[in-house]
Every structure is written in C-alpha cells, then in structure tokens.
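for the writeup, i need someone to sanity check this before i put it in the appendix. the sequnce is what the collaborator sent (i think, or maybe the updated version? ugh). structure was predicted straight from it, no edits. if anything looks off just tell me and ill rerun, i have time this weekend
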Amino acid sequence: MKKLIVLFSMMFFIMGNTFAQKGIQAAGVHLTYGTEIESFGIGVKYQYNITDNIRLEPSMNYFFENNGVDMFDINANAHYLFPMASNIRVYPLAGLTFARWDFGKVVTRLGVNVGGGAEMDITDNLMLNFELKYQVVSDLDQAVFNVGIAYMF
C-alpha cells in the first residue's frame, strides 16, 4: 500500500509541474457506467494540454452501490488528440488507475487504462465528450463508458 501511495504521489507531482506550462485547460463532469460493477456513477476530471496534441487528464469516478458493492477510482491518463474538424477531436488514451472496491470487505488494486474517446466543442468554452476505456485491474477488469461536459479555459 505504501508503494502505491508513493507511486500516485510522484505521478501527481510530475503532472503538477507540467500544469505550470501554458496550454489549454478544461475541467468537467461526466456520467459513467462500469461493466463489472454493473452500475452508473459520476466523475470529475481536469485536462491540460502539454502540446497541441498531447494532453494529461487526472480524474476520479464514484460508482453507485449495486448489490451491496460500490467502488471509486482515481485515474491518470494521457491522450493524443487527432483533430477531425475545427471543433471535433478523437483520441486514444493510456494511463493508470487506482480502484477501490467495497464488497463489505475493501479491496484496492492498481491497474492500467486503455481506450479512446471523441469530443466536440459546442461553444468557445464548452465541449461534450464520449469516452470508452478498459481498466485492466487484476480480477476486477471492466469497461468504463463516460459521457460528459467540460469547461475550457
């Protein structure tokens, strides 16, 4: 557990240093669904473009209790943005996840995220997005679907 805390602390420290660079930023909320927990949830995210095409995104999701089980995860993902039109982008993603499942007994796992998404600017400051990622987390693997909105600044 100590190694996990140190790993996440280092990751967010590195990302925190990157935030000082100029770039597009966004903060948003999303609805989420996890296939293993079979439950909907809510999430928050922060995005920072290091370059025009590379973006870092820490996020957190909470999945509502279903059949006595609930979970939350903390993610650190990187996106590579491909512009499809002036207001539409698609991206693959890769990153890390820390998942905490509560079955009456708490189980925590570190895993990997892989997936992709698409986003569309609906105004100069608002974008809609859809994302699908697969969380490879030991015996708790699941697909996660997100639909959300973010404010760009």
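The chain has one helix and nine strands. Strands lie at 25-34, 39-49, 54-66, 69-80, 82-85, 88-102, 106-121, 126-136, 142-152.
thx in advance!!
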